[in-house]
Write a structure and sequence with these properties.
Elements lengths: L13 E3 L27 E5 L30 H15 L7 E3 L11 H12 L16 E4 H8 L3 E4 L2 E5 L8 E6 L4 H4 L7 E5 L2 E2 L5 H11 L7 E8 L2 E8 L1 E4 L5 E6 L5 E6 L7 H14 L5 E4 L6 E2 H12 L1 H4 L3 E6 L9 E4 L7 E2 L2 E2 L12 E6 L6 H11 L3 E6 L7 E4 L1 E3 L2 E4 L3 E4 L12 E3 L8 E6 L14 H12 L7 H11 L18 E3 L3
Parallel strand pairs: 14-15, 15-21, 16-29, 21-22, 22-28, 27-28
Antiparallel strand pairs: 1-23, 1-29, 2-3, 4-25, 5-12, 6-7, 8-9, 8-10, 10-11, 13-14, 17-18, 17-26, 19-20, 23-26, 24-25
Helix pairs in contact: 1-2, 6-7, 7-9
Length: about 525
């Protein structure tokens, strides 16, 4: 199927949220601090919400005088009007509109001189308080973001940083913050840093700082929000100490850094594909990799999504078609978006695309048939950083009968989505819809989880629980997760639990008391972005 709707304006992007950052912390928050900005429950009065004062359109773009994010020409109203708009928009758009708690919008947490903080707090208070089956908040993904910063993020694959993907073992000390991978040509690579290097301190602040001020300093250094920020890092590698001064720069992501042929212990050949970001440049790189695998006649594929937090959904659809082939996917739904009962007429299908797009600006420029491997089975390497469009690949392939063997750990669990809506210089992202596969399954809010047997139509997927082996390079056949996949190709069974995996699991479970640290990606890398249809 071609892409008749992909040419609409890029800034009207809709987003299907299902992404999580490298350390497994929640994604999608404008704050990279130790917790929320507050007010998420303080204003709740219990019971059902009293409802909006009218349609959101009647309050739109009427902004408070102290809202410096809004255009000056729009600052002719009050914060109360902005809150009326938001409450009305929740009623119109929110997937769980019937679960919005009663909130007193006049409380101090939703007022004051900082308009963005007040509106963000009010937004948090309106989210459903319901929990998932494992006790997590059902809506831990809706967020707000300053509109100008959001536009800058989604219009570019460039991010300020050092070229480091961080991996967090535990949110509380001992955290074991390690480098998961390093972008080619980045300041981190130029400084000689490598996968597996463990952070000791930043600017004299311990990686295990347990106070709020220390956590704030860590986040500010690990995730600089501008270029030319200088920080001093101390790492350990194989018992030796490394001190490096890093200056943040504009980092261009390499979404598909590895595509190679690997060999199982019994000599079978398989493709190994490391895929880190569903951003526009990934499409051409994925097509080239699949063309190479197709030319070599490979019948096994290991798809490494352990750090892939998501991005464009059409790329996930294309990759799934390239894996499964057109005979299996033609006329089938890759993902169906389902809104609340109030908006059921808006439900829509994302197909398995069988032609390329090659996005330039906001237009598809080259729609040609995709290469296909026509596989009935695929191995997926996943961890808590596997989210969003990456989870859609797992779900979409399972929906058309492709056997997915999941190697690693539980994925992020974000089958929900939304459309960005701007009001008064703030972009609001309340969850609006859920995504389901061709079989109607989308109940994985607690993540896909590898299981010895796996059960069709559930979040439990056939596979093996294996720790991320940061001591070896990605793509090394001896790296624990890849080795488990290759061994499973031969024997159809999982490796015995290792002492290394047990020690890491223990370390994650026995953190000391202290303020938790989150290592999220920014929202542009932590979602499923859907070009408008």
């Amino acid at each position: 199927m071609s892409h008749p709707y992909r040419g609409a304006a890029a800034l009207a992007l809709a987003l299907l949220l299902a992404g999580c950052g490298g350390g497994g912390g929640p994604s999608g928050s404008p704050s990279l601090g130790s917790g929320s900005t507050g007010g998420s429950s303080g204003g709740s009065t219990g019971g059902a919400s009293t409802g909006p004062a009218g349609p959101s359109a009647s309050f739109a773009q009427q902004c408070a005088a102290n809202n410096t994010l809004a255009a000056s020409s729009l600052r002719n109203s009050t914060l109360d009007t902005e809150k009326k708009w938001l409450r009305a928009y929740f009623d119109e758009a929110y997937l769980w509109r019937d679960e919005v708690p009663g909130v007193d919008p006049t409380r101090p947490a939703y007022s004051g001189s900082d308009a963005y903080a007040a509106m963000d707090n009010y937004f948090e208070a309106l989210k459903t308080p319901q929990l998932t089956g494992t006790g997590q908040k059902r809506d831990r993904f809706s967020f707000t973001y300053p509109t100008d910063k959001w536009k800058a993020l989604v219009e570019s694959a460039v991010d300020a940083g050092y070229g480091i993907e961080w991996k967090l073992t535990s949110a509380t000390p001992p955290r074991q913050i390690r480098i998961a991978y390093v972008e080619p040509g980045s300041p981190a690579e130029q400084a000689g840093l490598m996968r597996g290097d463990q952070l000791v301190s930043v600017d004299g602040t311990s990686a295990d700082a347990a106070d709020s001020a220390g956590v704030d300093r860590l986040n500010a250094a690990l995730y600089p929000d501008a270029t030319n920020a200088q920080h001093s890092f101390v790492f350990t590698r194989a018992g030796a100490s490394l001190t490096r001064s890093l200056t943040s720069a504009a980092i261009t992501k390499t979404p598909v850094p590895l595509a190679r042929v690997v060999t199982t212990p019994q000599g079978q050949r398989a493709g190994y594909l490391l895929f880190n970001d569903h951003i526009a440049p990934a499409e051409g790189q994925l097509i080239a990799a699949m063309q190479g695998f197709q030319a070599q006649g490979l019948r096994e594929l290991v798809l490494d999504l352990r750090y892939n937090g998501g991005g464009y959904l059409y790329i996930a659809s294309e990759l799934s078609t390239m894996i499964a082939g057109t005979a299996r996917t033609s006329g089938r739904a890759f993902e169906t978006l389902k809104y609340s009962a109030k908006r059921s007429s808006e439900n829509e299908v994302t197909p398995f695309y069988n032609t390329s797009c090659i996005l330039v600006g906001n237009r598809c420029t080259r729609e040609q048939p995709l290469p296909t491997l026509n596989l009935s089975r695929v191995y997926v390497l996943a961890q808590s950083g596997t989210c969003s469009a990456s989870e859609a690949i797992i779900n979409g392939l399972r929906g058309v009968g492709v056997e997915v063997v999941l190697i690693g750990g539980k994925t992020c669990g974000k089958p929900y989505g939304f459309t960005a809506r701007d009001n008064c210089g703030i972009s609001y992202f309340p969850i609006e819809f859920a995504g389901v596969n061709d079989q109607g399954f989308g109940d994985y809010a607690d993540g896909f989880e590898p299981s010895a047997g796996g059960t069709a139509g559930t979040r439990f997927v056939k596979g093996c629980q294996v720790a991320d082996d940061t001591g070896r390079a990605l793509g090394d056949p001896a790296e624990a997760m890849l080795a488990a996949a290759l061994g499973h190709v031969d024997a159809g069974s999982c490796p015995a639990p290792t002492a290394l995996a047990g020690a890491r699991a223990l370390g994650a479970a026995t953190g000391e008391a202290g303020v938790p640290l989150a290592l999220p990606r920014h929202p542009a890398r932590s979602n499923r972005l859907l070009l408008p249809r």
